[in-house]
Amino acid sequence: MTLRLHEHPYSSYCQKVRIALYEAGTPFEAALVDFGDPDNIAAFQALWPIAKFPVLEDTGRGEIVPETSIIIEYLDLHYPGPAPLIPRDPDQALKARFWDRFFDLHIQNHQGAIIANRLRPAGQKDPYGRDEAHRKLGVAYGALEERLGDGPWMLGEVFTIADCSAAPALRYADMVRPLDGHPKVQAYLRRLFERPSFVRALEDAAPFGELMPKEDEAA
């Protein structure tokens, strides 16, 4: 059996899957996707034409699995760790899946839009889209602050797919729109920074330096 993760360690979505792999103790090979290398990209597109990472390649089962949440569900089903990341109780599983989607749709997407706007060349930036992403992030922060329980994790004592999603999402979001004024969310992020699986994911990203683009308000 060989699990090969096609990804880039600095990507928040790739970190989400790495956290899941480390939580389960599942061995895998990392295959770096380099968008600056045409041959590398061509090979990646041959594997998955959408060309969005991460993508899990399971050579033992002959499966190609894209999309972070599906990858984690796949791992939980076929390569489970000592504790499931999708709770076995159906109601708890729904809650875990809901919060996973919340962090992807309402945190990851909006912080990603802000970063993408920073990467646009001068004269092609989207101030309205940037401001809307900031506004929506603020709404999401407020909703999360109201709904966070006593923890330590989203579903209480158990670490789930929701927390795998939350860690990199909140880390990058805090870099583009600080979590100031949301003390429960800030405390939750501090706990995530102490989780060994997230520590390892951040260590994996460290050799690539600081790739976060600096804020540029020029339109």
Features:
alpha+beta, single chain, 56% helix, 219 residues, Glutathione S-transferase Yfyf (Class Pi), Chain A, domain 2
What share of residues is helical? 55-70%
The biggest sheet, with number of strands, parallel, antiparallel or mixed sense and barrel status, is: 4 strands, mixed
* CATH topology type of the domain at 90-195: Glutathione S-transferase Yfyf (Class Pi), Chain A, domain 2
* Cα end-to-end separation: 50 Å
Q: Treating each run of at least 4 consecutive H or I residues as one helix, how many helices? A: 8
Quote the beta fraction: 5-15%
Shape: globular
Number of strands: 4
Word description of this protein:
- This protein is an alpha+beta fold and 219 residues long.
- It has a domain at 90-195: Up-down Bundle (Glutathione S-transferase Yfyf (Class Pi), Chain A, domain 2).
- 56% of the residues lie in helices and 8% in strands.
- It is built from eight helices and four strands.
- A four-stranded mixed β-sheet has the order 2-1-3-4, with helices on one face.
- Helix 4 (90-119) runs antiparallel to helix 5.
- The termini are far apart.
In short:
The protein is of the alpha+beta class and 219 residues long.
